[in-house]
Design brief:
CATH superfamily of the largest domain in chain B: MetI-like
Number of helices of chain B: 17
Distance between the termini of chain B: 33 Å
Shape of chain A: flat
CATH superfamily of chain A: MetI-like
Radius of gyration of chain B: 28 Å
Order of helices and strands of chain A: HHEEHHHHHHHHHHHH
Low-confidence stretches of chain A: none
Shape of chain B: flat
Number of domains of chain A: 1
Number of helices of chain A: 14
Number of strands of chain B: 0
Structural class of chain B: mainly alpha
Radius of gyration of chain A: 24 Å
Helix content of chain B: 55-70%
Strand content of chain A: under 5%
Largest interface: A-B, 113 and 112 residues
CATH architecture of chain A: Orthogonal Bundle
CATH topology of chain A: MetI-like fold
Oligomer: heterodimer
Strand content of chain B: under 5%
Largest sheet of chain A: 2 strands, antiparallel
CATH class of the largest domain in chain B: Mainly Alpha
Low-confidence stretches of chain B: 1-18, 323-328
Number of domains of chain B: 2
Number of strands of chain A: 2
Distance between the termini of chain A: 26 Å
Amino acid sequence: MRSSWIHRRDRRGVWFVAPFLLGFLLFMVVPLGYAIYTSLYTYRIIGGTSFTGASNYTQALESGQFWSGVIRVVIFAAIQIPVMLAIAFFFACVFDLGVAKFGTFFRTVFFIPFAVPAVVGAVMWSFLLEPQFGPFTRLTSALGFGNTNFFSPNLLLASIIVIVIWEWTGYNMMILYTALKSVPRDVIEAAILDDTPLWKIIFRIKLPLVRPAIVMLVFLNTIGALQLFTEPQILEYFQTGTVSVNYTPSYYIWNTAIAGDQTNLAAAMAVILAVIIVVISALSLLIRRRRGEFA
Amino acid sequence: MTVTTAPPPASSGSAVAAPPESRRQRRRKERLAARESEIPIELYGLPRGTVTLLTTLAFLFAIFTLIPIAWIIINSTKTQANIFQSFGFWFAGPFEFFHTFGLLFQNVDGYGTFIQWFGNTALYAVLGGVGATFLSALAGYGLARFQFRGSRVVFYMIIAALLVPLTALSIPLYLTYAKAHLINSIWGMVLPSVVSPIGVYLMRTYADISVPRELLDAARIDGAGELRIFFRVALPLMVPGLLTVLLINVVTVWNNYFLPLLIFNVNTKYPLTVGLGLWSNRAVNSGDANLYPMLVMGGLVTIVPLIALFLVLQRYWRGGMLLGSIAN
C-alpha cells in the first residue's frame, strides 16, 4: 500500500533525472532531429538550399560507393570479431582455471592496449607496418618472402584487423574472465568428482553459463566494427593513397561532409548508417529477449 | 601456480572396503576442501607439459601486445633518420629523448603545440568525466529509488540511446554546431560528453543494489531534505560504482577522435588525438621540422598517464559491473 504522501515524494525523483534529460534533449535528440531535417534539403551553388525530399537518400542508396564500404565493414566484422573472441575466450579460460603460470601478470599486460587511444595505436602500427622501412616489412624480406607491402589493397584489411585485434582482445578477455569467475565453484567441483574431462567442463558447463556475456560482446563489437573510422583514417594520413575515400561508411561520411562539403548528403548517409546499426541492435535484443537473456 | 598442500593422510580402515573409484573421489574431495578459492590444477587430469605449453602461448601473446609499446619507447630516443634506418627494436645513437621531449613544449611547425593539446585533453576529460559521472549518479539514483510518472519511459529512452552509435551522433552534432555557432567552442566538446546513457544505466543498477530504501526512509523521518539525503546518504554508498563510471567516461573523452576532428578547426583547441593525427599527416612533408620523432614521443606521452591510471585503479575497474548489469 502506497500512501499519497509517498506518491508526492516520489514525484520529486523527476528533479534528479532532469539535468540528464536536458543534456539528452539538447545533445542527442535535437542534433539527430536536425540531421534528419538537413538530410531532406540540398544545397546548390545556383539557387541555394532547397527542399528535395528523399533525393539525398536515393543518391546515397543508389551509389555503389556507400554500399562497398558497408560490405567491407561487414567482412571486417565477420573475420575480426570471431578471431578476437576465440583468443579472448581461450585466455580467459586459461587464467580462470589457473593452468598457466604468472596469470595475474599476463592479464595486466593483455589489458594495456585498452588504455591506448585508437589514434596512438594506429600511429604505432603504421610505423611498424610501413612498407619501406617498417620492422615487419624488413622481417618478411629477411625471412625470404620479399618486400611485403602491408598497406597494399590486398593486405590493408588484414592489417587493420590485426590492429583492432591488438586494441580490443584484452578488454574482451577481462569481461569473459570476470564472467567465468562467477560460475559457481561447486558446479565445477561436482564435474571433477564425476571424472568429467577438462574440455567438457569448458565447453559443456562454462561456455553455456557465460553465453550471455559472449552475446553481449558480439553485439558491442559489431556496433564498433560498423563504425570503423580511426584506423583507416590514420593509415591514410600516415601514407597518402593507402585508403580509398569510401573505405568504410563512417570514413566516407566524413569525407563527404568535410572534404566534399556536401553536408546534406553526409547527413542522409549518417542517418542511414544509424538506422542500419539500430536495426541490427534491436534485432539482437529481440532475439535475446525471446531467449530470456535480457531483462 | 604450484600446489603446496600436502596430500591428506589416507584413512586405512575404510580404504579397504571402498571400491577404488570412490576412494579416488574422496581424496579429491579432501583436496578440494583444502583449497579455499582455487581448484588444484592437477585434479583436471591434464597431460604433462600442459602448463608449460599454455604459459608459452600466453607469453607469445604478451609479446604481440608489448611489441608496439616496446617500439615506441625505444624509438622515442632516436633521430628522424634512425627511426627509419636503424633496427626498430634496439637503440641507436645519438640519444635524442630529452631533446625531442623538449620540442613538445614548442610550436615547431607553426601548426600547434603538443603540451597545449595535452592540457586541452586533460581539461575535456576532467570536465566531461566528472560532469558525466555526476549527472549519471543523480539520474541513476532518481530512477532506482523514485517511481514518478514517466520514469519507465525515461528508462526505455536510455536503453534506446545506448544503441545510437557515437559516429552517427557526431555528424549531427557537427551540423547543429555549425548552425548554432558552436564550432571551436570547448563546450561543444564537453557538454555532449556529459550525457552518458551507459553511465546512467550503470548507476541505476548500482544505486539499486547499494542504497537501501530503509536508510532513505529513516533519513526522511529525521527530517532531512531529498537533496541532502542524496549527498549525505546515497552518494557515499555509491562510491565504488561512481569510480567505475568516472573511469569509463574519462577514457571515452580522452580517446575521442571523431567529434573533436569535426568540430575544431583551430589547433589551439585540439585534443591530443586530433593533434597527433594531424602530425601523422604532416610529418611526411615536414622536412627540417622533424615531426616523426615528435609523433613518436607524443604518442608515448599520451599513453603513459592512461596506462599508469589503469595500473593504479585496476581494482576499481569493474568489468563485472558492466557485464552484470547488462547480462541480468
